[in-house]
């Protein structure tokens, strides 16, 4: 006897259900695999970012150390230039004391005159 239409329907639906169950299982495994891979990539990316930030902080600290030393060098250069200028002025005053006094007096008078005229306004 050949199977009835109802039996064939049941068999085909059962086979379709079995295939759907297998497909759902495979889909779940694929999602789990993708989530695991994404999680691994996220962990790797996070580790790389931390390493780059750490390297950046170390480079910044090294730059700060050199910055302090560079500032000290610049201050030393400025102090030396100031001493040279003072020595030069001292030598000029010793060579020409009268002219130096006249220039200093004239500069003082000019500054006083400018200060008084600024107060009138």
Major sheet attributes: none
In total, the number of domains comes to: 1
Summarize model confidence as the mean pLDDT. Answer: 87
Calculate the terminal CA-CA distance, rounded to whole Å.
126 Å
Q: Unreliable stretches, pLDDT < 50, 5 or more residues?
A: none
* Alpha-beta content class: mainly alpha
Global shape = rod-shaped
Sketch the topology as an H/E string, one letter per element. Answer: HH
Please count the helical segments.
2
Output the radius of gyration.
45 Å
In total, how many beta strands?
A: 0
Note the beta-strand portion: under 5%
Share of residues in helices: over 70%
Question: Can you give a write-up of this model?
Answer:
By secondary structure, the chain is an all-alpha fold. The protein has one domain (5-119). Helix content is 94%, strand content 0%. The protein contains two helices and no strands. It has helices at residues 5-95, 97-119. Helix 1 (5-95) crosses helix 2 (97-119). The mean pLDDT is 87.
Characteristic key phrases:
rod-shaped, mainly alpha
Summarize the structure.
The chain is mostly helical and 121 residues long.
Topology at a glance:
Elements lengths: L4 H91 L1 H23 L2
């Amino acid at each position: 006897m050949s199977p009835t239409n109802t039996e064939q329907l049941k068999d085909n639906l059962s086979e379709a259900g079995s295939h759907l169950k297998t497909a759902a299982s495979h889909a779940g495994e694929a999602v789990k695999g993708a989530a695991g891979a994404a999680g691994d990539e996220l962990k790797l990316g996070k580790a790389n970012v931390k390493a780059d930030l750490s390297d950046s902080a170390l480079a910044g600290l090294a730059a700060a150390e050199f910055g302090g030393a560079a500032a000290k060098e610049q201050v030393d250069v400025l102090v030396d230039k100031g001493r040279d200028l003072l020595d030069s002025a001292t030598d000029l005053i010793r060579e020409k004391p009268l002219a130096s006094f006249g220039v200093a007096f004239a500069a003082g008078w000019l500054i006083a005159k400018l200060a008084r005229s600024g107060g009138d306004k």
